[in-house]
Amino acid sequence: QVQLVESGGGLVQAGGSLRLSCAASGRTFSIYAMAWFRQAPGKEREFVAVITRTGGSTTYADSVKGRFTISRDNAKNTIYLQMNSLKPEDTAVYSCATTGTAVSMIRGNYDYWGQGTQVTVSS
Prior knowledge:
Elements: E1 2-7, E2 10-13, E3 18-26, E4 33-39, E5 46-52, E6 58-60, E7 68-73, E8 78-83, E9 92-99, E10 112-113, E11 117-122
Parallel strand pairs: 2-11
Antiparallel strand pairs: 1-3, 3-8, 4-5, 4-9, 5-6, 7-8, 9-10, 9-11
């Protein structure tokens, strides 16, 4: 089992920045990659970004490229999501997830999920 705890959400004005954190515990040696997903009200959960545990290879959704940056600190078993130039359409619950197999943008390929943290961007 892997446990995930997100933090760092909040309310910010359009154009502002936030940094989210996701700390993993438990069987962290089984993690191949960690990702951020988000779910806005009335919409399906969508992929945001993913980073591999070794090598730090990253992939982003087109909607956040150039604005969001995913990073990792393996010593702390933590990933981060630096979000800049936030837009009202970025408003969502952001959740982190882990996979033990391969990088994917499909939520069904992830094994463990955190509870999520709310990000609200006002216009």
